[in-house]
Amino acid sequence: MTEYQKQYETAKKAGEVKSITPSYVEFKKKGDTIVGLLRGKSIVEGQKDGSIYNQYLVDTDTGLVKFALGRATDREIEPLLKMGHTYAFTFEEKVALSGGRTVNKFAVVEFGRPEVEGPPVDDNIPF
Question: What's the predicted TM-score (pTM) here?
């Protein structure tokens, strides 16, 4: 019989556990940047208007984070993002559009070598 609780306690004491619960990060000011390895994304329905957007899951130096970039950025970059690749996501500005709407502008940069070549991020991994 496997003793999962005992194995967990032993691993915890040895410092051999890693949290896979992401923290939510919100881009608030120009220059806010998240840098890390893209692990996945999920499709989210907005509470206010029912609009659909993506939440991205990124492994950073400080642990797993999740964040949204907005529908406009999703449409622009989604075909290019690949899991297992490293990216820097930087908030540039909020731009006012006609009709009182706004759009957030981001700079997204890929760098380094992929951890593993993965499928495009459109595989809809829930988290």
Answer: 0.78
